[in-house]
UniProtKB/TrEMBL annotation:
2,3-didehydroalanine (Ser): residues carrying this PTM: S144
EC number: 4.3.1.3
The protein's name: Histidine ammonia-lyase
UniProt pathway annotation: Amino-acid degradation; L-histidine degradation into L-glutamate; N-formimidoyl-L-glutamate from L-histidine: step 1/3
Pfam families tied to this protein: Lyase_aromatic
PTM comment, free text: Contains an active site 4-methylidene-imidazol-5-one (MIO), which is formed autocatalytically by cyclization and dehydration of residues Cys-Ser-Gly.
PROSITE patterns documented for this protein: PAL_HISTIDASE (PS00488)
Keyword line: Cytoplasm, Histidine metabolism, Lyase
Length: 512
C-alpha cells in the first residue's frame, strides 16, 4: 500500500479521507524531519536561557505568568496533557480521531512547533498501527484549538489513557503501544503544548463533511430528477439558456445534471405537446437547481477555507525560521467554525425541499394519478405514508442543527481565553446533519422509484431506470404493506456508499 507523505506540502482532501476513513498509512518526509530538527534546536536554545518563554519555561493560559524551573519542565509538559484530557460523553468516531491525528502530524511536520523528530515519528507510528485514542464528544471550545480532544491523543502517546486497537477492541494505551512495539514518549519542553494546541478536530470533520456532501448533492439531484419525472413535471425549466440568465456555477451544474438524468424518458415525453397544461410546477420541483446549486456554491466556499487550513501551521507559540518563538492567535477556530455553521444551512434546506417533493408524490390531490401514499390498496395499505413522517422528523432536526454554534462564545481560563469559536460543536452538529440529509434523500429516491414503477407501462429515462434497478437490489418494488424500516435502511446504505450515483453515472457519465 502506498503511504501518504506528510511534510512535502499541504495535504490533499483525498489524503485526509484515505487516512481517516480507509486506514491508509503515512510517512514523514526527509524534508519534514529536517525542518522539525532545526526548529527543535531553537527551542532547546531558548529553554537554556534565563528569560521566560511562553510554553517552554512558563505555565499555560491564565497561568502563563509563572516561570517554571528547568527541573519541573518535563513534569509541566506531562501535566498539561493529563489535566487537559478532560473530555466527557460518548466516544468520537474512529475516522474523526484519525483525521485529527493526521492533521496534528501535518502541523508538526511544518517545523513550526518545536517538537523533536521522535515525537512526530511516534504519532505517525501510532496512526499506522491503527491505534485510536479514546476521544470524547464534549470538551473542546474550538480555541486554543481542540484542546481536550487533542490532549486525549497526546495522552495515548505517553502511554496513558484508553485506546482502541486496530480491531476496535478497547484497551489501555500502555498495552496497545507495547503490542505494536512503540515506545511511549517522555515529553520535553514545548512538546505537550504543541501536541494539543490545534484546530485539527474541527478541520478533520469539515474535510470529511465536504467529501460526503459532494456525493450527497449528486444524489439529491437524482432524487429531484426522479421526482420531477414521477410527478409528470416539466423539464423545460432546466434548459441551459434559462439557467444562464442567473450565472451561479452550482446552479448550472445542478441543472445540467437534471437535464442528463431526464434525457430520453418516455414518461417525460408522454405529456409533452399542445394538450399539456403543466407549464409551471411547484417550487420544490421547478427550483431544484437554484437550491441545490446554492448548496454547491456554499460547499465550494467551505472547501476553499478548508484548503487554506490544510496549508496552515496552527500552534502557539510557533517557531519561526529565524529562531524566534512567538505567541499568536492562529489557534482560533473562527474560520473553520463559520463554514461548519454555514454548511448546516443548505443541508437543512436541501433536505426540506426533498421532503416537500416526497410529500407531493404521496398526496392523491397533487400526484397526478398516482394512488394515495403509493399504497397497493389505499385504506387497507398505508404505503409510504409514515416514511414521509420519518423524513419530516429528520428535517425538523436539521433545522435545529442549522442554528449556529459559533455565535455563542463562553469565556474560559479565568478570562484569558475570553472569546472562543465553538467550532468543535459546529463540526459535531454538521456530522449529524450530513447523516440526516442522507436519510432524507434516500427516502425521496425510494418513494420516487415506487412512483416511477407505478407509471408503467411508461418507462423512465435510462439514467433514472438504472437508479431504480440499483435500488431494487435492497428495496422491493410496489406491493402490499411490508415492514418499511429495513427498506429505508437499505436505501440509506445505497445512498451513503454511492451505489445509486454510480448507477446513474453508468448511463450519463460523471455528474457535476
Amino acid at each position: 500500500m502506498t503511504k501518504i507523505p506528510v511534510g512535502t506540502g499541504p495535504l490533499a482532501f483525498g489524503d485526509v479521507v484515505a487516512v481517516a476513513r480507509h486506514g491508509a498509512e503515512v510517512v514523514l518526509t526527509d524534508e519534514a524531519l529536517k525542518a522539525i530538527a532545526e526548529a527543535r534546536a531553537h527551542v532547546d536554545d531558548l529553554a537554556s536561557r534565563p528569560t521566560p518563554a511562553y510554553g517552554i519555561s512558563t505555565g499555560f493560559g491564565a497561568l502563563a505568568t509563572r516561570h517554571i524551573h528547568e527541573e519541573l519542565r518535563a513534569r509541566l509538559q506531562e501535566n498539561i496533557v493529563r489535566s487537559h484530557a478532560a473530555g466527557s460523553g460518548p466516544e468520537v468516531e474512529r475516522e474523526v480521531v484519525r483525521a485529527m491525528m493526521l492533521l496534528r502530524l501535518s502541523t508538526l511536520a511544518t517545523g513550526r512547533t518545536g517538537v523533536r523528530p521522535v515525537t512526530a515519528e511516534t504519532l505517525a507510528a501510532v496512526l499506522n498501527a491503527g491505534i485510536t485514542p479514546t476521544v470524547h464528544e464534549y470538551g473542546s471550545l474550538g480555541c486554543s484549538g481542540d484542546l481536550a480532544p487533542l490532549s486525549h491523543v497526546a495522552l495515548a502517546l505517553i502511554g496513558e489513557g484508553d485506546v482502541r486497537d486496530a480491531d476496535g477492541n478497547k484497551t489501555s494505551a500502555k498495552q496497545a503501544l507495547a503490542e505494536a512495539g512503540i515506545q511511549p514518549l517522555t515529553l520535553v519542553a514545548k512538546e505537550g503544548l504543541a501536541l494539543l494546541n490545534g484546530t485539527d478536530g474541527m478541520l478533520g470533520m469539515l474535510v470529511l463533511a465536504i467529501e460526503d456532501l459532494r456525493a450527497l448533492l449528486r444524489a439529491a439531484d437524482i432524487g429531484a430528477a426522479m421526482s420531477v419525472e414521477a410527478q409528470l413535471g416539466t423539464d423545460r425549466v432546466f434548459a441551459q439558456d434559462l439557467q444562464e440568465l442567473r450565472p451561479h456555477p452550482g446552479q448550472a451544474d445542478s441543472a445540467a445534471n437534471l437535464r442528463r438524468l431526464l434525457k430520453d424518458s418516455a414518461i417525460m415525453e408522454s405529456h409533452r405537446g399542445p394538450h399539456c397544461n403543466r407549464v409551471q410546477d411547484a417550487y420544490s420541483l421547478r427550483c431544484s437547481p437554484q437550491v441545490h446549486g446554492a448548496a454547491r456554491d456554499t460547499l465550494a466556499h467551505a472547501a476553499l477555507v478548508a484548503g487554506r487550513e490544510l496549508a496552515s501551521a496552527v500552534d502557539n507559540p510557533v517557531v519561526l525560521p529565524d529562531g524566534r518563538v512567538e505567541s499568536n492567535g492562529n489557534f482560533h477556530g473562527a474560520p473553520i467554525a463559520y463554514v461548519l455553521d454555514f454548511l448546516a444551512i443548505p443541508v437543512a434546506d436541501v433536505a426540506s425541499m426533498a421532503e416537500r417533493r416526497t410529500d407531493r408524490m404521496l398526496d392523491v390531490s397533487r400526484s397526478h394519478g398516482l394512488p394515495a401514499f403509493l399504497a397497493d390498496d389505499p385504506g387497507v395499505d398505508s404505503g409510504y405514508m409514515i416514511a414521509q413522517y420519518t423524513q419530516a422528523a429528520v428535517v425538523n432536526e436539521l433545522k435545529r442543527l442549522a442554528t449556529p454554534a459559533s455565535v455563542d462564545s463562553i469565556p474560559s481560563s479565568a478570562m484569558q481565553e475570553d472569546h472562543v469559536s465553538m467550532g468543535w460543536g459546529g463540526a459535531r452538529k454538521l456530522r449529524r446533519a450530513v447523516d440526516g440529509l442522507t436519510r432524507v434523500v434516500a427516502i425521496e429516491i425510494m418513494t420516487a422509484a415506487r412512483a416511477l414503477d407505478l407509471r408503467a407501462p411508461l418507462r423512465p429515462g435510462p439514467a433514472t431506470a438504472a437508479v431504480v434497478a440499483a435500488l431494487r437490489t435492497g428495496v422491493p418494488g410496489p406491493g402490499p404493506d411490508r415492514h418499511v424500516a429495513p427498506e429505508i435502511a437499505a436505501a440509506v446504505d445505497l445512498v451513503r456508499d454511492g451505489s445509486l450515483v454510480t448507477a446513474a453515472e453508468s448511463v450519463v457519465g460523471p455528474l457535476a
